[in-house]
Amino acid sequence: MSMQRHKWHEPNPDKVRDVVNATSSEPAQYLAEYFDAMEKGRDFAASKEIAEEFKSKTKEYVWERKEGEERKPYINPYRLNMLGYEVNKKLHDMKQARATEIRQAYGEKKYNEKLDKAKEYHKARKTSYRSMADDDGMSMSD
Q: Residue 130's pLDDT band (boundaries 50, 70, 90)?
């Protein structure tokens, strides 16, 4: 019995994927956008300028010492470990903003549907409604 192995890492040439473009060269924002694109199954692209700025800013960021802290033995004095935290925070904020937009759009859609339904209901009632004055011949036009 032979097992057929799938190559999951190869992209499907028939499937066109959306592309998320980098908007910032700040290390935390750039990486948050990258992880967001990967999580959604989209491709990620950055212009050469943004990519070069990202590389230089990341190098500066990684080797920058933490401000306001005294040197402690056996603790990394650089900010590399803070990058992951900041990326996670920005990614979480992006997801929350997107979820809020989706909830608001859904709420507006449902509200408009109810409003349209109510208008149709009242319009139907007005056309089928006859006043008592018309029945008794007591209209003002007589």
A: low
Taking residue 105's Cβ as centre, other Cβ atoms within 10 Å add up to: 10
Distance in angstroms (rounded) separating the CA atoms of residues 117 and 14 = 43
Q: What is the 3-state secondary structure (H, E, C) of the chain?
A: CCCCCCCCCCCCCCCCCCEEECCCCCHHHHHHHHHHHHHHCCEEECCHHHHHHHHHHHHHHHHCECCCCCCCCCCCCECHHHHHHHHHHHHHHHHHHHHHHHHHHHHHHHHHHHHHHHHHHHHHHHHHCCCHHHHHCCCCCC
Asked if the model's pLDDT at residue 53 lies above 60, the reply is: yes
The length of the chain, given as a count of residues: 142
Instruction: Say whether pTM exceeds 0.85.
Output: no
Reported as a pLDDT band with limits 50, 70 and 90, residue 81 is confident
How many other C-beta atoms can be found within 10 angstroms of the C-beta atom of residue 81? Answer: 11
Non-local (6+) Cβ contacts of 79 within 8 A are 61, 62, 64, 65, 66
